[in-house]
Amino acid sequence: MELRTMRYFLAVAREENMTRAAELLHVTQPTLSKQLKSLENELGKKLFTRHSFSIQLTEEGVLLRKRAEDLVKIADKITAEFLALDDVLGGDVYFGLAESYQIRHLAAAIRTFKNTYSGLRYHITSGDTEQVTEKLDKGILDFAALVQEPDPIKYNYLKFPDADLWGLVMPADCLLSAKSALCVDDLIGLPLFCSEQGWQHDIPRWCGSRIDQLRLEGSFRLAYNGSLFVKEGLGFLLTFQHLIDTAPGSGLVFRPLTPKLETPMYLIWKKYQVFTPVASLLLEALKEQILQGQEA
């Protein structure tokens, strides 16, 4: 199974049209069709359903698309890393980040670093712990920032200086907004929104077995999307402070939970990871930035 064939397959899957894909790849349509037919024969599975003017992926094709995308990303990253070995002034670094106010420390370190190493090109992917660690383990990412304690057997890590504070985002005219902090009893009976990760790992730390008395209306991986549902009066959002605009005039307010619930954040990378020169230098800058934050 050749990498070039994977690129051909992805182009057809993306365009859903053999002619357009062939034009983009600068190959003839018969050549492209022959390559894809050979791929189907090699895998023993039908990857496309062909219609009059379009092509649709089969279930097997959808599975291969995900695997092929990962393979191509890894191959491209390897190529870029070797090209960057002699370039200590620049190169590509890939991050997978959870939503957190702590990301400001990372942004500050990158800003300072680029003053010296202007050739740095950084790429940011957002996601929860499961999403970003999967990409990190595959080698697609160099670093990940998690709001869950990392496995010290698999990863090296730095702990960010502060911790994120949990609370409830609600309409500004809600009766609960008169309170300075909210306890479990305040949340019983409310339609609640929360990230799946937070609901499974963080909220139980706060309320223990009483989580069975709370009602999860829906889960969001992005807090901003959840806040839009709050504005429509569909529920209340359990999330970190500072992720949602709750300034006067926003129509929303944030109230912390009591007893206080906080979640630390970690920057992680794989054990025995071999970095490009620019990634190694950036890691040292990140260590210095986080250390300064801890001492502040």
TrEMBL record:
CDD domains xrefs: PBP2_LTTR_substrate
Gene Ontology annotations for the cellular component aspect, listed alphabetically: cytosol
Keyword terms: DNA-binding, Transcription, Transcription regulation
GO molecular function: DNA binding; DNA-binding transcription factor activity
InterPro entries reported for this sequence: HTH-type_LysR_regulators, LysR_HTH_N, LysR_subst-bd, WH-like_DNA-bd_sf, WH_DNA-bd_sf
PROSITE patterns with a match to the protein in the record: HTH_LYSR (PS50931)
Keyword Transcription: yes
Record-annotated HTH lysR-type domain positions: 1-58
Keyword Transcription regulation annotated: yes
Gene3D superfamilies, alphabetized: Periplasmic binding protein-like II (3.40.190.10), Winged helix-like DNA-binding domain superfamily/Winged helix DNA-binding domain (1.10.10.10)
Similarity section: Belongs to the LysR transcriptional regulatory family.
PANTHER family cross-referenced by the UniProt entry: HTH-TYPE TRANSCRIPTIONAL REGULATOR YBHD (PTHR30419), NITROGEN ASSIMILATION TRANSCRIPTIONAL ACTIVATOR-RELATED (PTHR30419:SF8)
Protein name: Hca operon transcriptional activator
Record gene name: hcaR
